[in-house]
Amino acid sequence: MQLQGQAALVTGGASGLGAETVRQLAQAGAKVAVLDVNIAAAETLAREVGGIAVQCDITSEASVREALAVARAAHGPARILMNCAGIGGAKRLVGRDGPMPLEDFSRIINVNLIGTFNVIRLAAAEMTALDPLEDNERGVIVCTASVAAYDGQVGQAAYAASKGGLVSLTLPLARDLAQFGVRVVTIAPGLFLTPLLYQLPEEVQQSLGASIPFPKRLGKAAEFASLALHIAGNLALNGEVIRLDGALRLPPR
């Protein structure tokens, strides 16, 4: 798909991997809607790139429907959806205070897995009704998983399960949408320099980077965004999960 002039949605677009994806989409000529619960940060970025900011809670059907309507009114129907919204959290299954509270597990699953699915199903319903482009393509959906889906560490049961769910969703969703010319691809990033890691001491950041076979540094948001845009432009990429991790395999802890 040629990105110039296409309407794009980026959830979690106000910070981290999502924000850099917004910037690169805008540089490629796409009309970008920055969807985020943090509307102030979304508005700042939208002004920077000439896009629009839309407050959106991906776990709420009403919120997502409203966000899609606002974006559609401004830019037309979206053919590109980048799912970057998500949360972290680490807690052992059984700790000093007993078993992990069920609400801690449910919260992460609800945002990372169910919330992402919520956006996909509503955006895909609009994409599938669009007129086809070249090669009968109508849209592309990119999800953000994690290498934790494969190499979940101690304390990552909820997070790994949520990202593993996205990995498992990729192929069936691609197969569901193939008849409409809508592709689904997932990126599984390794250790990236995101706002969460920026809070760690410099020596800890360097230690984490040194654990990566090559390049021996934390991933850059620009590298994630570059892959996301390549996926959007490469029609042959579909139904696949791509590890973006410098050959990293996470140890148990």
Automatic annotation (TrEMBL):
The species this protein was found in: Pseudoduganella rivuli
UniProt keyword Oxidoreductase, yes or no: yes
This protein's name: SDR family NAD(P)-dependent oxidoreductase
Family statement: Belongs to the short-chain dehydrogenases/reductases (SDR) family.
Alphabetical list of Pfam families matching this protein: adh_short
Molecular function (Gene Ontology), one example: oxidoreductase activity
Keywords: Oxidoreductase
Presence of the UniProt keyword Oxidoreductase in the record: yes
InterPro entries listed in its UniProt record: NAD(P)-bd_dom_sf, Sc_DH/Rdtase_CS, SDR_fam
